[in-house]
Amino acid sequence: MGERSAIVVGGGISGLAAAVALRRRGWRVRVLERSPRFAEVGAAISLWANALRAFDHIGVGERIRAFAVPERSAGIRSQDGRFITRVDADELAHRVGDVVILHRADLLAVLLEAAAGLTQGGVEVLSVSSTPDRAEVRHAGGVETADLVIGADGIHSAVRRSMWPQARPPRYAGYTAWRAVTPPLSIAEASETWGRGMRFGYAGLPDGRVYWYATANAPAGVRATDELAELRERFGDWHEPIPTLVRAATSVLRHDIYELPDLPSYVAGRVALVGDAAHAMTPNLGQGGCQAVEDVATLAALLDEYDVPEALARYDALRRRHTQAVVRRSRQAGRLGQWSSPLAVAVRDRLLAALPIEAMMIRQLKPILDWRLPDPLPTA
Ligand SMILES: Cc1cc2nc3c(=O)[nH]c(=O)nc-3n(C[C@H](O)[C@H](O)[C@H](O)COP(=O)(O)OP(=O)(O)OC[C@H]3O[C@@H](n4cnc5c(N)ncnc54)[C@H](O)[C@@H]3O)c2cc1C
Fold first, then answer.
1. Which of 75, 258, 297, 338 is deepest in the core (most CB within 10 A)?
2. What percent of the chain has pLDDT above 70?
3. What is the fold of 5-73+96-169+263-343+358-369?
4. C-alpha to C-alpha distance for 204 and 195, rounded to whole angstroms
5. What are the boundaries of each domain within the chain?
6. Assessment of whether the complete model's pTM goes beyond 0.70
7. How far is the CA of 2 from the centre of ligand 1 (A)?
8. pLDDT digits 0-9 by tens, 61-110
9. Which residues contact ligand 1 via a Cβ below 6 A?
10. CB contact set of 237 (below 8 Å; sequence gap of 6+)
11. Which of these, 332, 47, 77, 334, lies nearest to 190 by C-alpha position?
């Protein structure tokens, strides 16, 4: 095969990972990113064993590990600090592999470095189309064509809207999420606390800073004039270190949580969707980015073996059902955590205390975290 060309729409985790993976295989790649600057919002990110394995396939696993620390959660606590259920983090890591946490800016820096020379900011893709031989991308600066277009442009994907005009729009999950990173602080151990319709979790970053996130049931689109004041109000009487962590943050991000209804296909002509563009999910399993990296590693490996149409058909077969199942599981986990009626919450907390949570977590997570590239890749 001669040199093959790809245009990647979107320069987030998925798009940059795709560019790196394809360049290593000799493709000519261009990443078109709407923002003038490549910057990752969202504080920190947890990467589970499946994502680390996928990053190894892409060739940046070791670089990423160098910026990360293991994230060892002690379990789920109630608002007053009592453990509803404890988790043996070492046992969990032993059974399902390590989960690590790092600052998103560090992850993006590693990917940007590996994708140097391939990226162009300030280019908003308006639409995409495909013939059997070429895929075409339109933006304000004109029209470009390539052998393959990868739609890595996130939950509100323009690529998806172009190629799947009938697809249902993202669906609001009923709750909003805040995220922040504090200056270095000492915390005993990572954990998540469940209240009534609200949750708060935190974990230490490699340099002693602390990543925290909070959720609350709320109508979509509502914003406080001062989000940190709102959070001090909401979480001020929760157990320590929660009030301290909220007070220590100087800025906070807020995003309403959406997920994407199932698509009938992730591929059309010479266009493939990866990451949130294909399967945006609620963050409850910490798998949105992880599944995106799996998508990219799988697609790249298939493109080694097959021509574009064949590789895309196999990519859809390998990835769609799997990722849509993760979307469902993540939704279910979030619903339980966001229960708000006092009676239901009391029953939930008692059940969590009585059930073998660790074994259940392992059963739920193992099929997701055990992901490996099929070897050999499926044949016709
Ligand atoms: C609160 C929260 C916590 C999370 N925690 C975790 C976690 O711990 N672990 C994990 O694995 N995942 C987590 N996720 C999910 C994870 O953040 C996403 O799955 C991941 O960032 C998706 O990356 P992406 O590259 O597919 O999409 P995006 O990050 O959305 O990137 C899309 C890019 O495309 C660009 N773009 C959009 N439209 C266009 C256009 N028309 N033309 C050109 N460029 C365009 C955008 O500017 C953007 O840079 C979390 C999500 C949330 C909301």
1. 297
2. 99
3. FAD/NAD(P)-binding domain (3.50.50)
4. 22
5. 5-73+96-169+263-343+358-369
6. yes
7. 32
8. 999 999 999 998 889 999 999 999 988 888 888 888 989 999 999 999 99
9. 9-15, 32-35, 42, 45-46, 124-125, 152-154, 158, 177, 179, 213, 255, 275-277, 283, 286-290, 292
10. 79, 243
11. 77
